[in-house]
């Protein structure tokens, strides 16, 4: 057992001009810890303000001394499974991965093994403590059936900063999608709330009272029966692009959950891919952008309908929408 006296302690002096701020919010801004982790430590009475425990909502008065005790991180009880990860960038703070289709990101009921997290645990055996748990920091997720770029945090500081960038829409994510039919307006946005489907609990839907969801889109190419789009997210709802496309009667090609029309090409799943991802590095502040080509079956489908990706991709405007 660890001696309590050996646990790491962080001490903060609250400036006088910081009075009125919430305790949890202020600590998240001045430390490398996420706000949720700070709230957990407050609940566990691991944080004191002038030698007294306070709730997360406590309003600072200025000149207080805050002592934060960091317990040893818990170990995540998951199996490390070697996996051929397509890592596009890695440093001591984060990893950028091109996730293949049919790979679940995080273990859950029915998928405790064979997930991206299992592969990450094999790639890096000694992950640091993130939110008090020794684990990879999944900042955002992609559907099992969606391929493309995603970022994984390797430190608590990176986890908190990247999560905040996504929440504040400072990080940008742009997808390419092949959809059925032709869009009447070649550039626009879909602003429609998303919630659980009222009849099919396995699906999401545009529903009254759902969570705010906006997807910007722009038609890149039109084919006989389909359009190739780029889509940029302003929110992060489950199945957001798939739901919005189906809501507009232009479901993603190959998506049999939200569409009913099978494809006649070589697609092995849905034609939706996270192509471009941009964010500010959580430590040095440098803006970083990454791109990843769609899966081979997506590219082959485009060739079947008249577009050679390797030759024509440079002529497409695949930059972020509105900068």
Task: Give a short overview.
18% of the residues lie in helices and 28% in strands. It is an alpha+beta fold and 323 residues long. It has three domains: 69 residues, Structural Genomics Hypothetical 15.5 Kd Protein In mrcA-pckA Intergenic Region, Chain A; 93 residues, Pseudouridine synthase; 144 residues, 2-Layer Sandwich (Pseudouridine synthase), CATH 3.30.2350.10.
What is this structure's SSE topology?
Blueprint: E1 8-13, H1 23-30, H2 35-43, E2 47-49, E3 65-70, E4 74-75, E5 87-90, E6 94-99, H3 116-123, E7 129-130, E8 133-134, E9 137-138, E10 147-153, H4 156-167, E11 172-180, E12 187-191, E13 194-196, E14 204-206, E15 214-222, E16 226-233, H5 240-247, E17 272-280, E18 287-291, H6 296-304, H7 309-312
Parallel strand pairs: 4-8, 10-17
Antiparallel strand pairs: 1-3, 2-3, 5-6, 6-10, 7-8, 9-10, 11-16, 11-17, 12-15, 13-14, 15-16, 17-18
Helix pairs in contact: 1-2
């Amino acid at each position: 057992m660890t001696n309590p006296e050996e646990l790491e302690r962080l001490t903060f002096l609250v400036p006088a001009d910081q009075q009125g701020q919430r305790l949890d919010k202020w600590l998240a801004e001045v430390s490398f810890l996420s706000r949720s982790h700070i709230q957990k430590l407050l609940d566990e009475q691991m944080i004191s303000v002038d030698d007294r425990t306070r709730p997360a909502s406590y309003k600072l008065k200025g000149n207080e001394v805050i002592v934060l005790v960091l317990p040893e991180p818990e170990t995540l009880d998951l199996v490390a499974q070697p996996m051929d990860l397509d890592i596009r960038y890695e440093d001591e703070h984060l990893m950028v991965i091109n996730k293949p289709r049919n790979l679940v990101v995080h273990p859950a009921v029915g998928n405790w093994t064979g997930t991206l997290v299992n592969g990450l645990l094999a790639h890096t055996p000694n992950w640091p403590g993130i939110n008090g748990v020794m684990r990879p920091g999944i900042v955002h997720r992609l559907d099992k059936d969606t391929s493309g770029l995603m970022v994984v945090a390797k430190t608590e500081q990176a986890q908190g900063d990247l999560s905040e960038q996504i929440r504040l829409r400072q990080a940008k994510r742009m997808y390419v999608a092949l959809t059925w039919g032709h869009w009447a307006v070649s550039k626009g946005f879909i602003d429609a709330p998303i919630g659980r489907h009222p009849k099919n609990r396995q699906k999401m839907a545009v529903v009254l009272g759902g969570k705010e969801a906006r997807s910007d889109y722009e038609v890149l190419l039109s084919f006989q029966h389909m359009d190739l789009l780029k889509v940029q997210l302003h929110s992060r709802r489950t199945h957001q692009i798939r739901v919005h496309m189906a809501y507009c009667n232009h479901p993603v090609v190959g998506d049999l959950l939200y569409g009913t029309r099978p494809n006649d090409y070589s697609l092995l799943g849905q034609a939706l891919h996270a192509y471009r991802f941009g964010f500010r590095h959580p430590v040095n502040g440098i803006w970083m952008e990454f791109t990843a080509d769609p899966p081979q079956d997506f590219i082959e489908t485009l060739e079947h309908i008249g577009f050679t990706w390797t030759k024509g991709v440079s002529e497409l405007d695949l930059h972020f929408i509105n900068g």
